[in-house]
Amino acid sequence: MSTLTRRVARQAQSLKIITNSKPKEPYRCLSSSVRHADQQQKQQPTQPQDGSRTTHFGFETVAESLKESRVASVFSSVASSYDTMNDLMSLGVHRLWKDQFVRGLNPGTAPSPSSAQKGWNILDIAFRMLDHASTVNSDPYTRVTVADINPEMLAEGRKRGAVTPYGRERLRFVEANAEKLHMIEDESIDLYTVAFGIRNFTNKDVALREAFRVLKPGGVFACLEFSKVNNALFNEAYKRWSFGAIPLIGQIVAGDRASYQYLVESIEKFPSQTEFRDMIQDAGFLVPGKGWEDLTGGIAAIHKGVKPAR
Ligand SMILES: C[S@@+](CC[C@H](N)C(=O)[O-])C[C@H]1O[C@@H](n2cnc3c(N)ncnc32)[C@H](O)[C@@H]1O
C-alpha cells in the first residue's frame, strides 16, 4: 500500500466513511449530501430545447455555448484560494506530480541544433518550467507564454510572476481560449504543456488540433491531467475521498461547494488514458510508447505527443 493510499484511507476513516461496501443511497458525509459518479444517469440534464450541440459540465449536460461561461465562473470563484485548495485536496501530492511532469520534459536543453532562436518557447506551467530551465539547465533564454481564458486566474498568475526573477522577456500572460490561439503563430512553439486544464475545455479535440498547429515540427505536446485509477480497491477509496471530502473542503475553506463539486465531476467525465491517447493521435501527434505515464495509481496521468518532423 503506497503512502498516498494509506493517507487517503486514513482521511476516509477520519471522515467516518466505510470504504469496503457500496451504499445504495447517496453518501452522507458529515452534514453534507454527496453526489456520486454512479448517480449521474439519474440526473435531469439541462438539455437545450433547440437541438443545438451539447457537452458535459461535470455530470450535467449543457449546451456547448454555455460551458465556457459556466467553467469561467468556477475558476473566477476559486482563483484566490486555488493553491491552498490544491494542497488540501491532493494532500500536497499535486506538487510532486508537477515536479515529475517538468523533470520528464527537462526544459532548457536545446530543442534542436538548427533552432534560430535560443531557448524554448513554451506554452503554460510557467514557473516550474522556468525554474527548471534556469537552475537545472543553466538556460537563461527559455520563454513561457501562459495562456488562460480566465482573467482572475491570470491575475493570480501575474501576482506570483511578479516575485520571480523572470521579467516580461521570459514570462508573458495572454488571455486566450485554448481552442482559438489566434495570437500564436503556426509552428512557433517548442513545448505545449497543459496541466489540469484540458478537462475543462469545451472542445478538447479542437484544442488538440490548435496545439498541433502552434507547435514546431518535432515539438512536444504534454498534458498532466486527472485520469482513471487502475486498482478497484484504491479507486473505491479515492472516489469516496474525492466525492465525499473535496466539495466539503471547498465549502469549509473556500465557501464554495458547487465549484468543487464541478471539479470532481469533471474528473469523472474526463476520458480514460487510452481514449485520451487516441484523441492525441487523432490530432496528428505521434505518441511515444504506450502514450502515457500513470501517477499515483492513475489518479493523474502524463500524456505526450510529438508533432512529426518534416
Ligand atoms: C485547474 S486550473 C489549472 C491551472 C494551472 N495550469 C495549474 O496546473 O495549476 C484550469 C485552468 O484552465 C483554464 N481554462 C479552462 N478552459 C479554458 C480554455 N478553453 N482555454 C484556456 N484556458 C482554459 C481555467 O481558466 C483554469 O485557469
UniProtKB/TrEMBL annotation:
Function: Methyltransferase required for the conversion of 2-polyprenyl-6-methoxy-1,4-benzoquinol (DDMQH2) to 2-polyprenyl-3-methyl-6-methoxy-1,4-benzoquinol (DMQH2).
Coiled-coil ranges (or none): none
Catalytic activity of the protein: a 2-methoxy-6-(all-trans-polyprenyl)benzene-1,4-diol + S-adenosyl-L-methionine = a 5-methoxy-2-methyl-3-(all-trans-polyprenyl)benzene-1,4-diol + S-adenosyl-L-homocysteine + H(+)
InterPro entries: SAM-dependent_MTases_sf, UbiE/COQ5_MeTrFase, UbiE/COQ5_MeTrFase_CS
Entry EC number(s): 2.1.1.201
GO MF terms held by the record: 2-methoxy-6-polyprenyl-1,4-benzoquinol methyltransferase activity
HAMAP family hit by this protein: MenG_UbiE_methyltr
Localization, UniProt: Mitochondrion inner membrane
GO process annotations (BP): methylation
Pathway assignment: Cofactor biosynthesis; ubiquinone biosynthesis
Organism whose genome encodes this protein: Cryomyces minteri
Binding site for S-adenosyl-L-methionine: D148, N177, A178
Chain segments carrying region Disordered: 26-55
Keyword Translocase in annotation: no
Comp. bias (Low complexity): 40-49
UniProt keyword terms in alphabetical order: Membrane, Methyltransferase, Mitochondrion, Mitochondrion inner membrane, S-adenosyl-L-methionine, Transferase, Ubiquinone biosynthesis
Annotated membrane topology: Peripheral membrane protein
Protein name, UniProt field: 2-methoxy-6-polyprenyl-1,4-benzoquinol methylase, mitochondrial
Statement: the UniProt record of this protein carries the keyword Membrane: yes
GO cellular component: extrinsic component of mitochondrial inner membrane
Primary localisation category: mitochondrion
